[in-house]
Amino acid sequence: MISLVGKYAYVKQENLVEFYKSLNVPEAFVDKLIPKINSLKEFKVDGYKVTITGNYEATYILDKEVDETNEYNYTLKSIAKMEGNKLIVTSRTPEQPNTTLKRVYESNDRELIITMSCQKTPVIAKYYYRRVLP
Questions:
Q1: What is the tally of structural domains in the chain?
Q2: How many Å apart are CA 52 and CA 41, to the nearest integer?
Q3: Residues 49-104: tens digit of each pLDDT
Q4: pLDDT tens digits for range 14-50
Q5: Which of 14, 27, 45, 112 has its CA 20 to 30 A from that of 133?
Q6: CA 1 to chain CA centroid, nearest Å
Q7: Could you give the angle at the alpha carbon of 105 between the alpha carbons of 101 and 109, nearest 5°?
Q8: Rounded to the nearest 5°, which phi and psi values hold at 28?
């Protein structure tokens, strides 16, 4: 997990627009969900607590369900787990408790890749960030 610790600058995305549209997110809102070039994301780890800051701050306690409220004041029920060098966050909404959104955070000494999937769509989306500080 230590390899996740650091700051990353957004570079590009794959299939984000298609992913959100396939989940019926309104087109006007989809543009707001795509990061601006060089926007920062930072990972901090303190024991079993993982904090991710960027457009909003999310703090996870490994293997425990937490409320995650995004910058649009939308709350998800999320559980974070470590599998090897990957942080996997599985989230659901109170409105659709049987639908899960999965985010996989994987980093190395050069980059961070966030892969998003949901069982409601076959579309897989990816965010790419370059490491700027260890």
A1: 1
A2: 7
A3: 999 999 889 999 999 999 999 888 889 999 999 988 899 999 998 888 889 999 99
A4: 999 999 999 988 888 888 888 888 999 999 999 999 9
A5: 14
A6: 15
A7: 170
A8: -60, -30
Residue type for 41, please?
K
Decide: 43 and 6 in contact? Cβ < 8 Å: yes
- Helix, strand, coil tally for the chain in percent (to 5): 15, 55, 30
CATH number of domain containing 100: 2.40.128.20
Three-state SS at 33: helix
Rounded to 5 degrees, φ, ψ at 110 are -115, -30
Host domain of residue 31: 2-133
Taking the C-alpha atoms of residue 133 and residue 78, their distance in angstroms, rounded to an integer, is 27
What is the b/e burial string over 84-116, where b = at least 16 CB atoms within 10 angstroms of the residue's CB?
eebbbbbbbeeeeeeebbebbbbbeeeebbbbb
